[in-house]
């Protein structure tokens, strides 16, 4: 409500100030008909508006113009000169006229003609001497013009004459908006009115039409009051500084900064090419295209340096953009191959490796459009007048070419534009090359990662297992997640899931070393907490090796210190107990048959590599048919686990070992628990459902998942005897063993089993401490028989070579020869020696 009233009042005040009738203002349409006539025009020629408007303007001329002397009015932006006009009383007047050729708001063009009446009131030799002295004492040395209190020009220096391409005589008595037609002149005049009203200097920056009309120049304007000796404001001094170069320099810097933010946001070649085109349009060009030498999926050819091979070239259209919706200028579709002949602008730029600017008559352009009628038609249709080609070169290798074209922008490309385009292309080329190199590196990492993971799960009786591994999306790269299933003695099985900090080949290689170490430590049957302690020492040594014994520094390829998390679980199908320990890893989830999913309450432990802190184990009972889910944090948290030392260097950890993502982890575990309780026909189907529901198509972090359903050995498959610590007990033990083998129908295994039992029990009675226990385990589906002898001693037996006349020392060697494998495992008190022998498969 208030803005229109205030604007109208300001316009009325300004009109009163400047005295609108002190200028004769006439508008003439393109057909030469008078369409506007103000009171100043009536004062000048005596004709009222009703007698002139709607009639030919030629009727006002004192003499008809000569056709061959007329300038090309339709092509002019502005005209000024002296015109002989006929007064209403018959007199002839020589009038200085300034005419602007402008476009009205509703579309048609017209001529806006002005003539200052005040310029005819005093002779030049007596013109405003005070203004001259004030201008020298108060105005800066630049383009300067002096205006009176009616905002009519009284004086202008040579710099101002050059700036507007008008002489002082041409501008004398005119207002700013009459000298500079358009919004810029109006804004300057309003600022000058504020100077008169407030007596304060006004400053502004604006774009003014250049003298040649091809562009808008940037000017810094300063409008200062001109005061007499008494301090009364007698006029306004307008000074202008040409800031065009500085303005465009700032624009170029802003565009470069914008390019740094917008180009290379992803490790995707096509996306980076499109980002380059988007940045170039419309700031630098009206149309931009990016063409690559080879398909983006090809690995970078590091052996080829410089430009492409000789001959015609096929280029892949990777991106294009235009100021016109739909990019109608484009001839090639995105992803399409186009063939470019020798001598074309694209090929010449790729050959030379230098940017070039072409006008449409250049042979490189004519050679291109001559063999392509569609391209030639597009050039004519859109009026493309200037083309710039810029090579995309990174690390000595040319990847492609960017083509920029102008058709709306009136100027052809200048050298400053070439420099800017080269800077943008260089940034984009480095990002594209990084993306291509990354793709090759990621393929290698994926290959290495998959080769280090189990190719097939081993046969074992304890659990039914299904696993999944998903590498991270392209943004992050392949990491060091792994899983493993390790058969142990006594029909037990070890389940392992781990995660190495970082991504890339180094993380995959470190994962392989840790997986091998876990298998080696598992082979000597260490308890979970002891195994993690040894693994922690190994990770600490790996960090020390990479640091070379010096202060820790981040290696450009290795990425700094080594760190990892791990969860190790051992399940015994005989006792149905599961022992677990974790090192900074998310805890497992257990689902009892017919029950709800629960997260195992397991002490977190520090991540591997922190060193010096203990690991605590736990033991849970798992009924037959229970589900046990082990996973890496990429399954439940979007960002993944933070490396050791990032806020948890003391190893105290958090509730579930997932760093700062507790809330996300809790929600993720909740979703996982709900999915685990759903009915699925197989474990593989269950794993697929979990990944589908929890992960995006391109997960931000590696994901490893291991789901196991527990089995239990029936009591009929296990036989146990307590053996007295006397030599005579060996004979009874052999009898008991043969009787049990008869009960199982394993008479064929009697000879070997009797010999193994006799040797192991005899060694335990003779060399160890009571109590001594014998246990036989029949694994029918694996066709194997396990013999275990436990005692209270801690001495570990080992094979030795007996001499010719030795009476003993051959027992373990004989056991090793007759069985598939054998070994020893330590317990809290004592040890167990075990041997596994294959059974003959009954023929049908």
What does this structure look like?
The protein is an alpha+beta fold and 844 residues long. It is built from 21 helices and 31 strands. It has a 6-stranded antiparallel sheet with strand order 13-12-11-16-15-14. A 5-stranded antiparallel sheet has the order 2-1-5-4-3. The chain has a 5-stranded antiparallel sheet with strand order 7-6-10-9-8, with helices on both faces. Helix 17 runs antiparallel to helix 18. The radius of gyration is 46 Å and the shape is elongated. The chain starts with a helix and ends in a 6-residue tail after the last strand. About 5% of the residues have low confidence.
| Backbone structural class | alpha+beta
Shape: elongated
User: Portion of residues in helices?
Assistant: 25-40%
What is the number of helical segments per DSSP (H or I, 4+ residues)? 21
Unreliable segments of 5+ consecutive residues? 299-306, 549-560, 639-661
Beta-strand residue percentage:
25-35%
Mean pLDDT: 82
* N→C terminal distance: 102 Å
Record keyword descriptors for this entry.
alpha+beta; 844 residues; 21 helices; 31 strands; 27% strand
In a nutshell, what does this entry contain?
Helix 9 runs parallel beside helix 14 (415-452), helix 19 (729-744) runs antiparallel to helix 20 (750-767) and helix 20 runs antiparallel to helix 21. By secondary structure, this protein is an alpha+beta fold.
């Amino acid at each position: 409500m208030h803005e229109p009233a205030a604007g109208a009042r300001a316009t009325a005040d300004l009109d009163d100030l400047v005295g609108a009738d002190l200028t004769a203002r006439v508008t003439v349409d393109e057909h030469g008909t008078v369409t506007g006539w103000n009171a100043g025009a009536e004062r000048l020629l005596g004709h009222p508006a009703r007698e002139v408007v709607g009639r030919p303007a030629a009727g006002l001329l004192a003499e008809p113009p000569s056709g061959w002397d007329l300038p090309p009015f339709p092509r002019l932006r502005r005209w000024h000169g002296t015109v002989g006009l006929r007064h209403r009383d018959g007199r002839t007047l020589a009038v200085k006229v300034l005419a602007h050729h402008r476009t009205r708001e509703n579309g048609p063009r017209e001529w806006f003609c002005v003539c200052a009446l005040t310029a005819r009131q005093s002779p030049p030799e007596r013109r405003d001497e005070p203004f001259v002295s004030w201008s020298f004492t108060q105005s800066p040395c630049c383009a300067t013009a002096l205006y009176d209190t009616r905002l009519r020009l009284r004086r202008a220096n040579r710099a101002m004459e050059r700036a507007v391409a008008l002489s002082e005589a041409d501008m004398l008595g005119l207002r700013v908006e009459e000298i500079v037609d358009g919004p810029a002149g109006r804004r300057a005049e309003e600022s000058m009115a504020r100077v008169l009203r407030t007596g304060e200097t006004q400053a502004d920056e604006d774009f003014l039409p250049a003298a040649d009309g091809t562009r808008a120049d940037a000017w810094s304007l300063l409008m200062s009051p001109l005061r007499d000796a008494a301090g009364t404001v007698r006029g306004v001094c307008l000074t202008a500084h040409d800031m065009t170069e500085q303005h465009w320099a700032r624009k170029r810097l802003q565009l470069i900064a914008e390019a740094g933010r917008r180009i290379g946001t992803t490790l995707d070649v096509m996306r980076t090419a499109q980002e380059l085109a988007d940045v170039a349009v419309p700031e630098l060009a009206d149309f931009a295209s990016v063409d690559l030498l080879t398909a983006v999926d090809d690995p970078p050819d590091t052996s080829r340096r410089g430009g492409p091979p000789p001959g015609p070239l096929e280029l892949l259209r990777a991106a294009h953009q235009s100021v016109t919706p739909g990019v109608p200028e484009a001839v090639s579709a995105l992803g399409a191959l186009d063939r470019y002949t020798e001598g074309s602008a694209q090929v010449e730029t790729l050959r030379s490796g230098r940017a070039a600017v072409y006008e449409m008559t250049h042979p490189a352009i004519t050679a291109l459009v001559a063999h392509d009628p569609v391209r030639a038609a597009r050039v004519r249709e859109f009026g493309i007048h200037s083309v710039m080609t810029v090579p995309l070169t990174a690390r000595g290798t040319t990847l492609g070419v960017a083509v920029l074209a102008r058709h709306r922008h009136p100027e052809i490309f200048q050298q400053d534009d070439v420099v800017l385009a080269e800077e943008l292309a260089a940034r984009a080329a480095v990002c594209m090359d990084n993306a291509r190199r990354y793709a090759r590196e990621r393929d290698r990492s994926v290959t290495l990662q998959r080769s280090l993971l189990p190719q097939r799960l081993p046969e074992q009786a304890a659990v039914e297992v299904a696993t999944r591994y998903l590498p991270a999306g392209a943004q992050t790269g392949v990491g060091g997640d792994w899983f493993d299933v390790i058969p142990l003695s006594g029909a037990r099985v070890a389940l392992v899931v781990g995660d190495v900090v970082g991504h890339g080949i180094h993380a995959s290689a470190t994962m392989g070393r840790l997986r091998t170490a876990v298998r080696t430590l598992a082979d000597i049957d260490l308890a979970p907490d002891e195994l993690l302690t040894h693994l922690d020492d190994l990770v600490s040594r790996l960090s020390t090796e990479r640091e070379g014994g010096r202060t820790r520094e981040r290696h450009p390829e290795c990425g700094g210190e080594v760190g990892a998390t791990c969860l190790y679980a051992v399940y015994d199908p005989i006792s149905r107990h599961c022992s677990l320990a974790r090192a900074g890893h998310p805890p497992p989830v257990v689902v009892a048959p017919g029950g709800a999913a629960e997260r195992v309450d397991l002490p977190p432990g520090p991540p591997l590599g922190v060193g010096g802190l203990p690991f605590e184990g736990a033991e849970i009972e798992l009924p037959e048919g229970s589900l046990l889910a082990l996973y890496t944090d990429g399954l439940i948290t979007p960002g993944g686990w933070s490396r050791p030392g990032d806020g948890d260097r003391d190893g105290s950890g958090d509730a579930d070992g997932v760093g700062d993502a507790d809330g996300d982890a809790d929600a993720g575990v909740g979703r996982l628990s709900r999915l685990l309780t759903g009915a699925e026909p197989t474990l593989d189907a269950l794993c697929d459902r979990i990944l589908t529901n929890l992960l995006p198509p391109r997960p931000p972090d590696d994901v490893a998942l291991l789901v196991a359903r527990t089995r239990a050995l029936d009591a009929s498959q296990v036989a146990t005897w307590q053996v007295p610590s006397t030599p005579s007990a060996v004979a009874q033990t052999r009898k008991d063993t043969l009787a049990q083998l008869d009960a199982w129908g394993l008479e064929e295994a009697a000879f070997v089993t009797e010999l193994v039992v006799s040797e192991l029990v005899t060694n335990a009675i003779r060399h160890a401490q009571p109590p001594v226990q014998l246990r036989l385990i029949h694994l029918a589906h694996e066709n194997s028989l396990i013999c275990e002898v436990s005692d209270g001693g801690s001495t570990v037996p080992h094979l030795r070579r007996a001499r010719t006349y030795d009476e003993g020392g051959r027992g373990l060697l004989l056991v090793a020869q007759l069985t598939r494998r054998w070994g020893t495992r330590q317990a809290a008190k004592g040890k167990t020696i075990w041997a596994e022998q294959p059974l003959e498969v009954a023929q049908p």
